[in-house]
Amino acid sequence: MPTIGAGLDQPVAHASVPLAFEGTSRGVLNVAARPGATFEEAELRFLETVGRQLCVAVEGARHLKAERIYNQEARALAALNKGIGESLDAEAVLAAVGHTALEIVRVDRVHILLGSDPRHLTVAHLAGLPTRSCAKARCST
Q1: Is the dihedral of CA 64, 69, 70, 76 positive or negative?
Q2: 61-77 pLDDT per residue, tens
Q3: pTM value?
Q4: Distant-in-sequence, close-in-space partners of 133: CB < 8 Å, separation ≥ 6
Q5: Which residues contact 35 (CB under 8 A, 6 or more apart)?
């Protein structure tokens, strides 16, 4: 590679190791050699190993995050199922749905609208942070 840093008098050798995870290339690990030096074969093999380990670590972290999200959704859906199954009261069911939606989607508020005509929906339940329209409808936290 040509000189890329200020104050260098000569070109600097670089090792570029492709970073592939999730089945495709996702980046490059680029390491500059000392000015005037090149990488030895053992150093290049080491950098390839570092690149593979980096990819394994990234994939592991992504899998862990996906597993945590899946487990959180499973717990929330179990709570929703329990809330719906324990009650024949429509208000309690709507409250369980609103609370579960708040947890899963991680939003500030949920509005549950009911009606067969999209032009004439009514607010059946509000959950989460209050809005200005809460004075006119039922709100829960």
Answers
A1: positive
A2: 999 999 998 998 888 88
A3: 0.51
A4: 123
A5: 8, 9, 10, 12
